[in-house]
From TrEMBL:
Organism: Cohnella lubricantis
GO BP terms in the entry: CAAX-box protein maturation; proteolysis
Name of the protein: CPBP family intramembrane metalloprotease
Record has Hydrolase as a keyword: yes
Lineage start: Bacteria, Bacillati, Bacillota, Bacilli, Bacillales
GO molecular function: endopeptidase activity; metallopeptidase activity
Residue ranges of every copy of the CAAX prenyl protease 2/Lysostaphin resistance protein A-like domain listed in the record: 400-511
Annotated keywords: Hydrolase, Membrane, Metalloprotease, Protease, Transmembrane, Transmembrane helix
């Protein structure tokens, strides 16, 4: 039963979520300079074509293709976030040197490329360069020339030419100091004479007629810190997540077979299949996101993106199979222990149970959002946690941003079936079995309850290890956060059943995705955000309606609790 105490906790969770996660974003939006609206992908493509024609003399008919990608300087975002300097950078540097850009890779009829980076809000050209067919920077002597041909033999002449190029593109030469450094492509490096933001300095890379790029130079100790953190995240993912996943895969098959008499192999096939279809649809929608994972700065060919999509689909297929066996094995384990946490569609009142689980899911998600807000705030205070950026799943890199909420359904279905339904039942069976052998009798109800709580910990930790690769630092921030949330979701499942836990997980992720969409600044993302928040209710109502239409002859529904 969902008592007033649970309802009060849900209301408190909403207030905490608003206070710690919504209001800070509103304050940031209120203090940002210029317009907060972000160009959508079509507008950005049109802007890039216009710039190619007007600023570089490219004929429209010579444009063979245009790949648009949202890129972000994740290290710079991390440094500014950690140092509380993001607002200062936005006011002082963002107009000419944004940390996030739309980059257009434009292939011309000649096979060469024109690479344009524009400000995502103003459409201003902030960086550009020309690339040959093989990705090498053009030289003035034509394709395939020496990389240093633009520099010439006289360094002073090269510097004068670079300064003239700066002036031609709207920069004040007096504000830039030559460093004496030359990049491997032959561009001269100039550093801003303006005071740095913290220790972050801006440099321009200038090669007349071929390149005018910029880079944000960060303190070496911070760069070393980020490298160590990323290496640590890779190690933690491999040891704490990938290896346990392989073991869980084998165990799920074993226990699904061993406990088949308590369940049916028809359990979970629809949910695991739905997970696979939705996730493939989600990944196909983010082709540009795969392009953004290239660190070379060169155009990413279609073959490379397609290969990544195929590999991703194979991994998703394996995860879907694991989810299926986890559903069967978990159901068999729980029913063998005398628990019925997941009703079958043929049971009386199933549709009403789904509606009730959906309502409970919203309330439980609000509790989880409040808990998450407190946990993240505490970790920020205690560990100095900060957030960087990740463009691989950016809404700006999605063909249809309104499909972004699909990730909430995928995570809720697979992770609750694997880590909560199967994971907790597996460790509970082991712990109660060991306790029974040690005491030579069945554990008492109190002891069994304590063992059940202990059984929640290992799968929660494994689930948390799977998220340490997210751009939140130190990387163990997510390990702590999601281990605690995993225990909370385990409690939700045991108290209200599997369907309520799935709806709670989906709703939590849908709320976070919805808020992100609303603040992303795309013209139509307010409606996408509203759809994301409403999606669990739409899904629950649809299941109830379908069940009512196809199972009319069921026994009277159970009373609503």
């Amino acid at each position: 039963m969902f008592s007033l105490r649970w309802l009060a906790a849900s209301c408190l969770g909403v207030l905490l979520f608003i206070a710690f996660q919504i209001i800070p974003q509103l304050e940031t939006a209120a203090t940002s300079t210029g317009t907060s609206a972000v160009m959508d992908r079509q507008a950005a493509r049109e802007r890039a074509v216009s710039l190619a024609v007007t600023s570089f003399g490219v004929a429209r008919e010579d444009i063979q293709r245009l790949d648009l990608t949202h890129f972000s300087d994740s290290d710079a975002v991390g440094y500014l976030s950690r140092s509380k300097l993001m607002n200062a950078y936005d006011h002082g540097m963002d107009e000419r040197f944004p940390t996030d850009v739309y980059r257009s890779d434009i292939q011309l009829a000649s096979g060469e490329w024109l690479q344009l980076s524009v400000h995502m809000q103003t459409g201003r050209l902030v960086a550009w360069r020309k690339l040959g067919e093989n990705g090498a920077v053009w030289s003035r002597s034509g394709r395939g020339g020496s990389q240093n041909a633009a520099v010439g033999g006289d360094g002073s002449n090269a510097e004068s030419a670079a300064i003239a190029s700066l002036s031609r593109w709207g920069y004040e030469p007096d504000e830039w100091e030559p460093t004496g450094e030359t990049t491997i492509e032959g561009a001269l490096v100039f550093q801003s004479r303006k005071p740095p933001i913290g220790e972050a300095k801006v440099q321009l890379l200038v090669k007349p007629n071929e390149e005018l790029m910029y880079r944000i130079v960060l303190p070496q100790n911070f760069k070393n810190y980020m490298e160590r953190q990323q290496d640590l995240a890779s190690t933690m993912t491999a040891i704490g997540y990938v290896l346990p996943e392989i073991v869980l895969f084998a165990l799920a098959i074993v226990y699904a077979t061993t406990y088949a008499k308590f369940t049916s192999f028809r359990r979970g096939w629809l949910l695991s299949g739905l997970y696979f279809v939705l996730y493939v649809l989600f990944t196909t929608n983010m082709r540009a996101g795969f392009r953004s994972s290239s660190e070379s700065g060169l155009p990413v060919n279609d073959q490379g993106v397609t290969t990544l999509l195929v590999v991703n689909a194979v991994v998703l297929a394996a995860t879907a199979v694991l989810t299926y066996f986890a559903a069967v094995g978990g159901d068999g384990l729980w029913r063998s222990m005398g628990y019925s946490l997941w009703p079958q569609a043929k049971e009386p009142g199933y549709g009403r149970r789904v509606l009730r689980s959906m309502r409970h899911g919203y309330a439980l998600a609000f509790i989880a959002l409040g808990a998450q807000s407190i946990i993240l705030f505490a970790l920020e205070m205690l560990l100095g946690s900060f957030v960087s950026s990740d463009t691989t799943q950016s809404s700006y890199n999605m063909t249809y941003p309104w499909l972004m909420p699909l990730i909430a359904c995928c995570a809720g279905l697979s992770e609750e079936l694997l880590y909560r339904y199967f994971g907790i039942s597996l460790f509970r069976r082991w712990l109660t079995g060991m306790a029974g052998r040690l005491m030579r009798r069945e554990p008492s109800r109190r002891a069994a309850g304590m063992l059940t709580i202990a059984a929640m910990v290992p799968p929660s930790v494994i689930w948390a290890f799977g998220h340490v690769g997210y751009p939140i630092y130190p990387v163990y921030t997510r390990l702590i956060e999601l281990t605690l949330l995993g225990l909370l979701f385990g409690w939700f499942m045991l108290r209200f059943g599997l369907m309520a836990a799935i709806f709670a997980h989906i709703t939590l992720d849908a709320m976070l995705v919805g808020v992100q969409l609303m603040f992303d600044g795309l013209p139509y993302d307010l409606y996408s955000g509203i759809f994301s928040v409403a999606m669990p209710a739409i899904v629950g109502s649809a299941i109830w309606l379908l069940h009512r239409l196809f199972w009319r002859n069921n026994a009277p529904p159970v009373p609503a609790g």
